[in-house]
């Protein structure tokens, strides 16, 4: 088991202040940060991001503003520290009858209705139908093939002008593990004409919708969604932040229980292996904090219709906003986006927390992403590893509106969207990396 030396927050801040974030990422040849080029006609580029791998290709899907017919674009990063900054596919959900989601999802391995297994698939929004219910639009971009399209049905009527779609798939597999068939979940809070929001799950390798019905009406049910994995099984998670609730469903779509917490509990939700035990933890944003909840508590739920307060012992760590010499992330918005990834490839995950309203070097709402290396049992388990921002940050960029991790052979790299500036940034460097992992961009 790897041993780590704990350092004080003061030391961490000192290291941050003196490292490469002061380099101008948009000018330097081997900058530690690369900014993807915004495709034309895609306002709000970076509102949502996700990533997947297809063999040696590492792909990022970045979407424009929700509810706008401007679509999403796919970029190729590769396995090293070079990325193609120009999108190779800008046709994702870019038609007038496709509504872009607030959060997009990757399906590294998908099963189409015709029975074909496809790789490198994306869900960027829902398709309006002239007659009948809408459908999720799935597009696959396999190597050497034309884009393959198919639809997944939604068992409810959505109003494209008012209803907000949230999508999520499973968290990244462990570093070096091949992706498998991927479960998907979609949620629409404040469903037009309904007393409650709605959510639907799709089991791995299935195109059959599972209507996820909570034990009580909640207007914002579907405002946050995630897929949870433990011991080879999956559960669907749906947040209802107006009630401070997180509803849990099994792989058959049956409700098995609920956890409740602080105000706005579950306004954002992510899953991933934070403690390195092979199963997911659940990362939940409240109004002001982010909590890492023990996955065992979620896996053990078996009281349908009952919403129980999350036990203090099951909150493994609470992550809080910190103010440093460069960033004040505490005007609000801490936790507006969440992701879990293994930056250094050591088997346990780091938690990325978006703070799009953060002030960066005096620029309001330039935005930042806090990265927490959670060390359970340590004197400071919520240790801030670093905060990520753009050296070229401008007020209103809102970096951290979206965050994701992209898989590499030996680790994951951070991707963050700044839709106010039409930017998506790839952060290659971290002080967690060993000298052999750092490469030319991290010198």
Structure summary, number of beta strands? 31
Terminal residue distance: 27 Å
What class would the helix/strand composition place it in?
mainly beta
The description of the largest β-sheet is: 5 strands, mixed
Q: How would you state the average pLDDT, rounded? A: 86
Strand content: 35-45%
Q: Mind telling me the C-alpha Rg?
A: 20 Å
Helix content bin: under 10%
Strand order of the largest sheet: 14-15-16-17-21
Q: Rough shape?
A: globular
- Low-confidence sequence ranges: 1-24
Q: Helical stretch count?
A: 3
What's the layout of helices and strands?
Elements (H helix, E strand, L loop, with lengths): L8 H10 L14 E4 L11 E7 L2 E7 L8 E5 L12 E4 L5 E14 L5 E11 L7 E6 L7 E6 L12 E4 L14 E5 L9 E5 L7 E3 L11 E7 L2 E8 L4 E5 L5 E6 L7 E5 L8 E5 L4 E4 L1 H5 L7 E3 L5 E5 L7 E2 L8 E5 L8 E6 L3 E2 L7 E5 L11 E5 L13 E6 L4 E7 L4 E5 L7 H4 L5
Parallel strand pairs: 17-21
Antiparallel strand pairs: 1-31, 2-3, 3-4, 4-5, 6-7, 7-8, 8-9, 10-11, 11-12, 12-13, 14-15, 15-16, 16-17, 18-19, 19-20, 20-22, 23-26, 24-25, 25-27, 27-28, 29-30, 30-31
């Amino acid at each position: 088991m790897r041993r780590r030396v704990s350092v004080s927050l003061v030391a961490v801040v000192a290291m941050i202040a003196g490292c490469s974030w002061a380099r101008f990422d948009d000018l330097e040849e081997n900058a530690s940060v690369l900014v993807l080029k915004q495709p034309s006609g895609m306002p709000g580029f970076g509102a949502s991001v996700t990533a997947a791998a297809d063999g040696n290709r590492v792909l990022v899907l970045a979407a424009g503003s929700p509810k706008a017919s401007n679509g999403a674009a796919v970029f190729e990063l590769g396995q090293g520290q070079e990325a193609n900054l120009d999108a190779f596919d800008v046709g994702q959900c870019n038609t007038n009858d496709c509504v872009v989601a607030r959060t997009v999802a990757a399906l590294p391995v998908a099963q189409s209705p015709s029975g074909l297994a496809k790789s490198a698939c994306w869900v960027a929004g829902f398709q309006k139908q002239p007659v009948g219910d809408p459908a999720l639009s799935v597009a696959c971009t396999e190597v050497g093939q034309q884009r393959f399209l198919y639809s997944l049905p939604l068992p409810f009527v959505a109003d494209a002008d008012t209803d907000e779609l949230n999508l999520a798939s499973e968290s990244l597999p462990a570093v070096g593990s091949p992706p498998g068939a991927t479960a998907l979940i979609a949620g629409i809070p404040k469903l037009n004409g309904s007393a409650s929001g709605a959510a639907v799950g799709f089991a791995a390798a299935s195109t059959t919708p599972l209507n996820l019905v909570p034990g009580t009406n909640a207007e914002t049910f579907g405002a946050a969604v995630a897929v949870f994995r433990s011991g080879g099984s999956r559960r669907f998670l749906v947040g209802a932040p107006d009630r401070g609730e997180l509803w849990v469903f099994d792989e058959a779509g049956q409700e098995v229980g609920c956890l409740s917490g602080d105000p706005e509990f579950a306004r954002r939700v992510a899953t991933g292996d934070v403690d390195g035990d092979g199963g997911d933890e659940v990362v939940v944003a409240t109004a002001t904090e982010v909590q890492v909840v023990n996955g065992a508590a979620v896996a053990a739920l078996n009281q349908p219709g009952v919403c129980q307060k999350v036990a203090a012992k099951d909150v493994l760590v609470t992550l809080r906003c910190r103010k440093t010499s460069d960033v004040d992330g505490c005007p609000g918005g801490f936790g507006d986006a969440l992701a879990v990834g293994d930056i250094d490839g050591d088997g346990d995950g780091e938690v990325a927390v978006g703070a799009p309203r953060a002030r960066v070097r005096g620029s309001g709402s330039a935005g930042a992403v806090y990265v927490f290396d959670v060390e359970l049992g340590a004197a400071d388990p919520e240790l801030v590893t670093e905060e990520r921002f753009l050296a070229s940050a401008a007020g209103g960029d809102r970096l951290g509106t979206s965050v994701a991790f992209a898989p590499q052979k030996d680790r994951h790299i951070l991707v963050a969207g700044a839709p106010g500036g039409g930017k998506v940034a790839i952060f290659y460097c971290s002080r967690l990396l060993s000298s052999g992992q750092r490469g030319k961009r991290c010198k």
